[in-house]
Amino acid sequence: MLQLQSFVFNPLQENTYVLFDETKECVIIDPGCYEREEQYDLADFIETNQLKVVKLLNTHGHVDHVLGNAFVKETYKTKLYIHEQDAATLKAVKVYAPHYGFFQYQEAEPDIYLKEGEAVTFGNQSLDVLFVPGHAPGHIAFYHAASKTLIGGDVLFYNSIGRTDLPGGNYDTLIDSIHQKLFTLPDDVTVYPGHGPETTIGYEKKTNPFCAL
Where is the Metallo-beta-lactamase domain (predicted)? Predict the structure, then answer.
Protein backbone atom coordinates (compact mmCIF):
# COMPACT_ATOMS: atom_id res chain seq x y z
CA MET A 1 0.00 0.00 0.00
CA LEU A 2 1.28 3.44 -0.91
CA GLN A 3 2.04 5.75 2.00
CA LEU A 4 2.78 9.47 1.73
CA GLN A 5 4.55 11.91 4.00
CA SER A 6 4.68 15.62 3.22
CA PHE A 7 6.96 18.39 4.45
CA VAL A 8 6.73 22.17 4.01
CA PHE A 9 10.18 23.60 3.33
CA ASN A 10 11.93 26.92 2.65
CA PRO A 11 10.51 30.47 2.74
CA LEU A 12 8.42 29.77 -0.37
CA GLN A 13 6.47 27.13 1.59
CA GLU A 14 7.08 24.33 -0.89
CA ASN A 15 5.62 20.86 -0.39
CA THR A 16 8.12 18.00 -0.48
CA TYR A 17 6.78 14.44 -0.64
CA VAL A 18 8.16 11.07 0.38
CA LEU A 19 6.27 8.09 -1.08
CA PHE A 20 6.92 4.60 0.29
CA ASP A 21 5.34 1.22 0.92
CA GLU A 22 5.72 -1.98 2.93
CA THR A 23 9.01 -2.83 1.18
CA LYS A 24 10.57 0.29 2.75
CA GLU A 25 11.68 1.55 -0.65
CA CYS A 26 10.82 5.22 -1.20
CA VAL A 27 11.07 8.08 -3.65
CA ILE A 28 11.55 11.73 -2.75
CA ILE A 29 9.68 14.24 -4.90
CA ASP A 30 10.75 17.89 -5.11
CA PRO A 31 13.04 18.22 -2.08
CA GLY A 32 12.78 21.87 -1.12
CA CYS A 33 14.88 21.49 2.03
CA TYR A 34 17.51 24.23 2.21
CA GLU A 35 18.40 24.91 5.84
CA ARG A 36 20.21 22.24 7.84
CA GLU A 37 17.19 21.87 10.10
CA GLU A 38 15.01 21.08 7.10
CA GLN A 39 17.51 18.56 5.77
CA TYR A 40 17.59 16.96 9.21
CA ASP A 41 13.79 16.71 9.33
CA LEU A 42 13.74 14.85 6.02
CA ALA A 43 16.65 12.58 6.93
CA ASP A 44 15.21 11.87 10.38
CA PHE A 45 11.92 10.71 8.90
CA ILE A 46 13.71 8.41 6.47
CA GLU A 47 15.94 6.97 9.18
CA THR A 48 13.18 6.58 11.77
CA ASN A 49 11.03 4.68 9.30
CA GLN A 50 14.01 2.66 8.02
CA LEU A 51 13.35 3.71 4.44
CA LYS A 52 15.64 3.19 1.47
CA VAL A 53 15.69 6.09 -0.98
CA VAL A 54 15.80 4.64 -4.48
CA LYS A 55 14.88 7.61 -6.67
CA LEU A 56 14.83 11.42 -6.59
CA LEU A 57 12.08 12.95 -8.73
CA ASN A 58 11.51 16.56 -9.81
CA THR A 59 8.16 17.69 -11.17
CA HIS A 60 9.99 20.72 -12.55
CA GLY A 61 13.17 22.70 -12.03
CA HIS A 62 12.17 25.89 -10.21
CA VAL A 63 14.35 26.91 -7.27
CA ASP A 64 11.91 26.18 -4.44
CA HIS A 65 11.44 22.58 -5.60
CA VAL A 66 15.10 21.68 -6.10
CA LEU A 67 16.98 23.26 -3.19
CA GLY A 68 17.54 19.84 -1.63
CA ASN A 69 18.47 17.94 -4.79
CA ALA A 70 22.20 17.92 -4.04
CA PHE A 71 21.62 16.94 -0.42
CA VAL A 72 19.43 13.98 -1.39
CA LYS A 73 21.75 12.82 -4.19
CA GLU A 74 24.84 12.98 -2.00
CA THR A 75 23.26 11.52 1.13
CA TYR A 76 21.43 8.61 -0.47
CA LYS A 77 23.56 8.06 -3.60
CA THR A 78 20.49 8.15 -5.81
CA LYS A 79 19.79 9.43 -9.31
CA LEU A 80 17.83 12.53 -10.23
CA TYR A 81 14.89 12.15 -12.63
CA ILE A 82 13.32 15.11 -14.48
CA HIS A 83 11.78 15.80 -17.89
CA GLU A 84 14.34 16.76 -20.52
CA GLN A 85 12.43 19.91 -21.45
CA ASP A 86 12.97 21.22 -17.94
CA ALA A 87 16.72 20.58 -17.84
CA ALA A 88 17.37 24.21 -18.79
CA THR A 89 14.98 25.39 -16.07
CA LEU A 90 16.96 23.41 -13.53
CA LYS A 91 20.28 24.62 -14.91
CA ALA A 92 19.23 28.26 -14.54
CA VAL A 93 18.65 27.99 -10.79
CA LYS A 94 22.30 28.55 -9.89
CA VAL A 95 22.15 31.91 -11.68
CA TYR A 96 19.12 33.36 -9.94
CA ALA A 97 19.05 31.50 -6.59
CA PRO A 98 20.99 34.28 -4.81
CA HIS A 99 18.30 36.77 -5.81
CA TYR A 100 15.87 34.73 -3.69
CA GLY A 101 18.31 34.68 -0.78
CA PHE A 102 19.55 31.14 -1.41
CA PHE A 103 23.27 31.91 -1.43
CA GLN A 104 24.34 28.37 -0.52
CA TYR A 105 22.43 26.59 -3.28
CA GLN A 106 24.28 23.55 -4.60
CA GLU A 107 23.63 22.43 -8.15
CA ALA A 108 22.73 18.81 -8.91
CA GLU A 109 22.85 17.43 -12.43
CA PRO A 110 19.96 15.32 -13.75
CA ASP A 111 20.76 11.68 -14.47
CA ILE A 112 17.67 10.31 -16.20
CA TYR A 113 15.04 12.07 -18.31
CA LEU A 114 11.43 10.99 -17.95
CA LYS A 115 8.80 11.02 -20.68
CA GLU A 116 5.02 10.91 -20.61
CA GLY A 117 3.70 7.38 -20.64
CA GLU A 118 6.65 6.01 -18.72
CA ALA A 119 6.28 4.52 -15.25
CA VAL A 120 8.44 5.22 -12.22
CA THR A 121 8.62 2.12 -10.05
CA PHE A 122 9.71 1.56 -6.46
CA GLY A 123 8.84 -1.20 -4.04
CA ASN A 124 5.53 -2.64 -5.20
CA GLN A 125 4.37 0.70 -6.59
CA SER A 126 4.18 2.35 -10.00
CA LEU A 127 3.75 6.04 -10.80
CA ASP A 128 2.54 7.13 -14.24
CA VAL A 129 4.34 10.15 -15.71
CA LEU A 130 2.02 12.87 -17.04
CA PHE A 131 3.41 15.72 -19.17
CA VAL A 132 1.70 18.92 -17.97
CA PRO A 133 3.59 22.00 -19.23
CA GLY A 134 2.48 25.60 -18.77
CA HIS A 135 3.97 26.56 -15.42
CA ALA A 136 7.33 25.25 -16.64
CA PRO A 137 8.12 23.92 -20.12
CA GLY A 138 8.99 20.40 -18.94
CA HIS A 139 6.63 20.08 -15.99
CA ILE A 140 5.47 16.57 -15.16
CA ALA A 141 3.11 15.06 -12.58
CA PHE A 142 3.12 11.61 -11.00
CA TYR A 143 -0.10 9.60 -10.83
CA HIS A 144 -0.59 6.53 -8.65
CA ALA A 145 -3.70 4.94 -10.12
CA ALA A 146 -4.19 2.27 -7.44
CA SER A 147 -4.66 4.84 -4.66
CA LYS A 148 -5.92 7.66 -6.90
CA THR A 149 -3.08 9.89 -5.78
CA LEU A 150 -1.58 12.67 -7.92
CA ILE A 151 1.63 14.51 -7.06
CA GLY A 152 0.92 17.53 -9.18
CA GLY A 153 3.69 20.06 -8.60
CA ASP A 154 2.77 23.64 -9.52
CA VAL A 155 -0.01 22.93 -12.01
CA LEU A 156 -3.27 22.73 -10.07
CA PHE A 157 -3.77 24.11 -6.57
CA TYR A 158 -6.70 24.33 -4.20
CA ASN A 159 -8.89 26.87 -6.05
CA SER A 160 -5.88 28.16 -7.96
CA ILE A 161 -3.30 27.30 -10.62
CA GLY A 162 0.43 27.65 -11.10
CA ARG A 163 1.77 31.03 -12.13
CA THR A 164 2.64 31.47 -15.80
CA ASP A 165 4.69 34.68 -15.74
CA LEU A 166 8.03 32.94 -15.22
CA PRO A 167 10.36 32.08 -18.13
CA GLY A 168 8.87 29.21 -20.13
CA GLY A 169 5.41 29.69 -18.66
CA ASN A 170 2.28 29.94 -20.78
CA TYR A 171 -1.26 30.40 -19.49
CA ASP A 172 -3.10 28.73 -22.38
CA THR A 173 -0.73 25.76 -22.26
CA LEU A 174 -1.27 25.38 -18.52
CA ILE A 175 -5.05 25.43 -18.81
CA ASP A 176 -4.88 22.89 -21.61
CA SER A 177 -2.67 20.65 -19.48
CA ILE A 178 -5.19 20.81 -16.65
CA HIS A 179 -8.17 20.10 -18.87
CA GLN A 180 -6.59 17.40 -21.02
CA LYS A 181 -4.37 15.58 -18.51
CA LEU A 182 -5.74 16.21 -15.01
CA PHE A 183 -9.48 16.75 -15.41
CA THR A 184 -9.70 13.49 -17.34
CA LEU A 185 -8.69 11.64 -14.16
CA PRO A 186 -11.41 10.33 -11.80
CA ASP A 187 -13.13 12.98 -9.67
CA ASP A 188 -12.04 11.31 -6.44
CA VAL A 189 -8.32 11.57 -7.23
CA THR A 190 -6.52 13.46 -4.46
CA VAL A 191 -4.15 16.14 -5.73
CA TYR A 192 -1.08 16.83 -3.64
CA PRO A 193 0.24 20.14 -5.02
CA GLY A 194 3.58 21.90 -4.78
CA HIS A 195 2.16 24.50 -2.41
CA GLY A 196 -0.81 24.62 -0.08
CA PRO A 197 -3.34 21.97 0.94
CA GLU A 198 -4.42 18.95 -1.03
CA THR A 199 -7.61 18.98 -3.08
CA THR A 200 -9.50 16.68 -5.43
CA ILE A 201 -9.99 16.64 -9.17
CA GLY A 202 -13.78 16.73 -8.82
CA TYR A 203 -13.72 19.73 -6.49
CA GLU A 204 -11.48 21.76 -8.78
CA LYS A 205 -13.54 20.86 -11.85
CA LYS A 206 -16.55 22.44 -10.14
CA THR A 207 -15.08 25.38 -8.22
CA ASN A 208 -11.66 26.47 -9.50
CA PRO A 209 -12.06 30.09 -10.70
CA PHE A 210 -9.35 29.67 -13.35
CA CYS A 211 -10.14 26.34 -14.93
CA ALA A 212 -13.46 24.89 -13.74
CA LEU A 213 -15.45 23.15 -16.43
Answer: 13-195
66-to-21, 171, 203 alpha-carbon distances in Å: 24, 23, 29
Which residue spans within the chain are E strands per DSSP? 3-9, 14-20, 25-29, 52-57, 80-83, 112-114, 119-122, 125-131, 140-144, 149-153, 156-157, 160-161, 190-193, 199-200
Residue at 137: amino acid letter: P
Q: Delineate the domains of the chain, giving CATH numbers in brackets.
A: 3-207 (3.60.15.10)
DSSP state of 74: H
- pLDDT tens, 145-165? 999 999 999 999 999 999 999
- Cα–Cα distance, 148 to 150 (Å, whole number): 7
In the 8-state DSSP scheme, what is residue 149? E
Which residues, 6+ apart, have CB-to-CB distance to 17 below 8 Å? 4, 5, 6, 7, 28, 29, 30, 151, 192
**39 in Cβ contact with 31 (< 8 Å):** no
Decide the pairing of beta strands 199-200 and 190-193: antiparallel
| 70-111 pLDDT, tens digit each | 999 999 999 999 999 999 999 999 999 999 999 999 999 999
How many CB atoms within 10 Å of residue 36? Answer: 10
